[in-house]
User: Fold this.
Amino acid sequence: MTPAAPGLAIAIALALPAAAQDDPLPSWNDGESKRAIIAFVQDVTDENGDAHVDEDDRIATFDNDGTLWVEQPIYTQLAFALDRVRDIAADHPDWKTTQPFQAVLEDDMDALAATGDKGLLEIVAATHAGMSTEQFAQIALDWLTEAKHPRFDKPYTKLVYQPMLELIDYLQDNDFETYIVSGGGIEFMRPWTQEVYNIPPQQVVGSSTVTEYEIVDGKPTLMRTGEIAFVDDKAGKPVGINSHIGRRPIIAFGNSDGDFQMLEYTTVGVEGPSLGAIVHHTDADREYAYDRASPVGKLDKALDAANDNGWLVIDMKTDWKTIFPE
Assistant:
């Protein structure tokens, strides 16, 4: 076969439409969702347009579980907490006969579910407290390095959504400040979001436990207690946005009813342009398909309200060419 002339590839590239060469969202299929996102970003960054938004006000918020990475079959931080119960059970012999810890040690998920939110909070309190913030961060990082997802057999940080990584990059390239606003623990996420999402720890908003200032071995230290300080979910998300960010977002992405109030806060009754979007899990082959009946990432109320509020519903199966990074 005769090699192509050196200039041929350049000539072909020049002949391609600009969109084909400079596609900011290459893992998205060319559909309504992709076109709406790109059009919105172009409108708010056009200095001569009526919809222009100053850089200081270009705030975009993203839920984490189910919006940026996989949340099935259970939330990742819950998987971490359950593994922590198993890891430190030898120091707590009473757990063998005490719920909800007995259910975890016996791998009885029905019994664990029967303990409800109270049981889960007990597990989080017992496994996330009694250590410094630095110690907790290292334990979380070590677990994320070693733990594998039960279906995909990959580290959880490899099960982030490639289309959403591209979207974050696209927004950052257009002078948006990008924030994670998640029901997950703020100190569980902050150690790794910079590396995985290019979102620094100071731009992570999440649930938190009470921490106390102590002098430990002569060193000022923040110690984690077992008391919940703030739950950054549902109506807590706008509260967290206000307290951590201090500006109302103009873009919000979520995937469940836990994001309903964040989407409302961003888009309903506001002056100026705004965009709300829901990642709808519809792809059982490449990831998972779930919505109204799911105990994890339930999407019901927000799905019903999407049309009336003008929120995009991103269909994972049809809108995304790929799910996870190669």
About this structure: Residues 32-45 form the longest helix (14 residues). Strands lie at 59-62, 131-132, 177-185, 204-216, 219-230, 251-254, 275-280, 312-315. The two ends are 31 Å apart (CA to CA). Residues 1-20 have pLDDT under 50 and may be disordered.
